[in-house]
């Protein structure tokens, strides 16, 4: 039973969070919440999936859902690649895929104050760069699935980098999530953005084009 519980916890929580929950000395009702400074948050949506869903009658909805599941599963496979090891999938909401880079950063406790800002900027830039590469990879996967399924789904991406709070809510059914203005800005960049583009709400970049 302990092995089963361990497997379940590791499947629903990031590895660095699961390790804390599996600690036998941890109080059951202890709140898990951490403030992070340089996390890049991404919302990747397929805005025309809703239109695709609406085209079919009730008997075909299962096929629509099966196709969305295939897309999400292919997106998930990218997370196992070493270059994307710093990215955590947060959740999916309908046809929107939410992820974040930099949630498992080691604390900079030994960093000299005079070098702190330089390291912060470099860390933020690295997280944004990794997430942009991830978004480009998502776009490539979607293009391939479009060709295989004769669809024309488009990816629209919004990102933001900055401070946020990450934590786990619930005890019987714990859910890991992130909160803060950085998350809200990334969501707005996606919602009000253009299809086939990556929109970055960050001070040194504004937009990347997904296709030439």
From TrEMBL:
Cofactor: Mg(2+)
Primary site of residence: membrane
Source superkingdom: Eukaryota
Topological type in the membrane: Multi-pass membrane protein
GO MF: adenylate cyclase activity; ATP binding; guanylate cyclase activity; metal ion binding
SUPFAM superfamilies noted in UniProt: Nucleotide cyclase
Family membership: Belongs to the adenylyl cyclase class-4/guanylyl cyclase family.
Protein name: adenylate cyclase
Organism from which the protein derives: Gongylonema pulchrum
């Amino acid at each position: 039973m302990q092995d089963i519980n361990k497997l379940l916890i590791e499947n629903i929580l990031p590895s660095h969070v699961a390790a804390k929950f599996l600690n036998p000395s941890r109080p059951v009702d202890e709140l898990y919440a951490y403030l992070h400074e340089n996390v890049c948050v991404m919302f990747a949506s397929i805005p025309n999936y809703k239109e695709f869903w609406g085209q079919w009658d009730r008997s075909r909805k299962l096929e629509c859902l099966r196709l969305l599941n295939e897309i999400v599963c292919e997106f998930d496979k990218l997370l196992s690649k070493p270059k994307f090891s710093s990215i955590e999938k947060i959740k999916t909401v309908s046809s929107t895929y939410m992820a974040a880079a930099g949630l498992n950063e080691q604390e900079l406790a030994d960093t000299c104050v005079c070098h702190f800002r330089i390291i912060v900027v470099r860390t933020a830039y690295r997280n944004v760069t990794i997430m942009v590469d991830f978004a480009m990879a998502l776009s490539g996967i979607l293009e391939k699935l479009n060709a295989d399924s004769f669809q024309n789904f488009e990816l629209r991406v919004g990102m933001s980098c900055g401070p946020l709070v990450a934590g786990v809510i619930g005890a019987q059914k714990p859910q890991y999530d992130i909160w803060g203005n950085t998350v809200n800005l990334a969501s707005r960049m996606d919602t009000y953005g253009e299809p086939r583009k990556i929109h970055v709400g960050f001070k040194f970049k504004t937009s990347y084009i997904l296709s030439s």
